[in-house]
Amino acid sequence: MKKLQIPGLILAAILLLAVVGVAAVWAPDRSVEELAPRWAGPPSQFAMVDGMKVHLRDEGPRDDPQPIVLLHGTSASLHTWDGWAAVLQTKHRVIRVDLPGFGLTGPTPDGNYQMPVYSHFVASLLDTLKVQRAVLAGNSLGGYVAWKTAVDYPERVSKLILVDSAGYASAAASVPVGFKLAQMPMLSGLMAHILPRRVVESSLRNVYGDPSKITPELIDRYFELALRAGNRRSLSARFSQNKAGEFEAQVSQIKQPTLILWGGLDRLIPPENAQKFHHDIANSSIVMFDTLGHVGHEEDPAATVAAAQAFLDR
What we know:
Layout: H1 2-25, H2 32-39, E1 44-49, E2 52-59, E3 68-71, H3 82-88, E4 94-97, H4 115-128, E5 134-139, H5 141-152, E6 157-163, H6 177-182, H7 185-191, H8 197-207, H9 216-226, H10 231-241, E7 258-263, H11 272-280, E8 284-289, H12 296-299, H13 301-313
Parallel strand pairs: 3-4, 3-5, 5-6, 6-7, 7-8
Antiparallel strand pairs: 1-2, 2-4
Helix pairs in contact: 3-13, 4-5, 8-9
């Protein structure tokens, strides 16, 4: 009898620990209504674009003939551009948006996250805001969306600013753990219901050149907006639907003046890719930031926006 009880107790203990462990990282979806009070205060607004209720901010002088549209990277939001927007809006109309699948905008109606969907979204956003032409600036995925829009809708884009932009097939020196989990089909369903805050923190540390700059408030933002209903499933879908370097042959079609900003400590998209963009885009220039990582616009907004402003003032 005793021999039967010991394994039973061990199994019960294991099950209890498993339940406690899951409960500790259980993170159900949150609605936009729950998240908006903290993350969509003034000057945030929502507009219908391509069948989605899109979260955006539109600031600065309304008579600016060529506004600047800022596009964030994977798992980020329009808030990543706070530092740039504060400076640029003194001279320019600055439009920031949560891209489909991220932030408070959330999933696309049909679950399609291929790059032509994103470039069409940007063109539709410009139509909604009655903007004929704009400067597009984007980081990582946002950079990819920016230059793809410049290729697909060249008449709508006057200049480009690419900040550690995606687009070429390349090997990362280090991938954030959150991205790794989202790309594992066996775990994607589970990750739609759990999200350890430490995974978000680890992922942020991975993309910063100086992780000491990461604050609890910054982790809160990435963590809470990842919980927006549907965002975690959208992330997995986007990774599965897009192939690395799928449109890289189109980079040479870019004719707009282009500024390439890159962090020398970027471990996700290697600094060598800055040279690839510079080589393939005829009218381009590069500014390197040796101590910054993958999200230099967020890590050191003052230095990076100064380079952007100089480019815009030319």
